[in-house]
Fold:
Amino acid sequence: MKRMTLQKNNSTKTIQEGFKEFYRFCRVKNLSEPTLTYYQETLDTFQNFYPLSNQISTINKTITDDYVLFLKNNSNMNDISINTKIKGLRTILYYFMELEYMDNFKIKLMMAQKKIKETYTDAELKLLLKKPNLKQCGFAEYRDWTIVNYLLGTGNRVDTIVNVRIKDIDFESGYIKLDKTKNKRQQLIPLSNVLAKVLTEYLQYRDGEKEDYLFVSVYGAKLNGNSLGHSIKKYNQRRGVLKTSVHLFRHTFAKKWILNGGDIFRLQKILGHSTLDIVREYVNMFGEDLQKDYDKFNALEQMTEVSKHTMVKPSKMGSMR
Structure:
């Protein structure tokens, strides 16, 4: 009779079978739909290089290294996009390693130079923030103008915005309650004076009950992320602004915050990041904006300004021997 052991028999499990387990594990953890889609797309891309019918145990460092080269030579992805694919695959494979479906090894990202994040310029913001004529415009245009104000005044993500309800705007205390966030933690953020005035007027036209969503379609239905993004794209184009990304408002919020002297710790809390790592990257987005008032705040310029009257003029110095 064969002796029973506790050794797992995972040597024949295929990548497709393992991913079904991983996907279920992610759902049990209550990960967001965009995250689940990201992992599915990660696997779809990997499938173009390595068949999912292969056994998980066949994957090793040589395979993952060759996959990186495959992406570099057979796709139009830049290094940052390739790293995004590697991160997703690494999460999946580390799950397999933890369950002893495959041997352990480190999967490192490529060295990639991060590009300066694009933001809206002041000139573009002036065009977007110009209030429409309420006697001539329709509800959709006025709502989109309100959303632009909200975006620039909060830095919220799209998935958060479409889930804000009227009751979440606390005008008396000066806060907005966010129930739908990326890290799934309820959050309170400050409500600025200007945004409070904009929303107060908007709600006079929007009307609705406290449980209703703040931003809705012309028929009163809840907006989803795609419909909001599409509306803002058309709104921007009608205003003559070629940039149409909703997420750029988040970058712009962070940029303005730091350039105006806001500290990164509060910015971290407002943007809902769990660590300061991503917030620190916003410092790299400024580009030419870092040159603004550089001499005014530069330590060497300040010291030179203070001591310029005490400096010895070259003509008074003895000659070099």
Remarks:
- The first strand starts at residue 169 and ends at 170.
- The CA atoms of residues 31 and 184 lie 9 Å apart.
- The chain is about 50% helix and 5% strand.
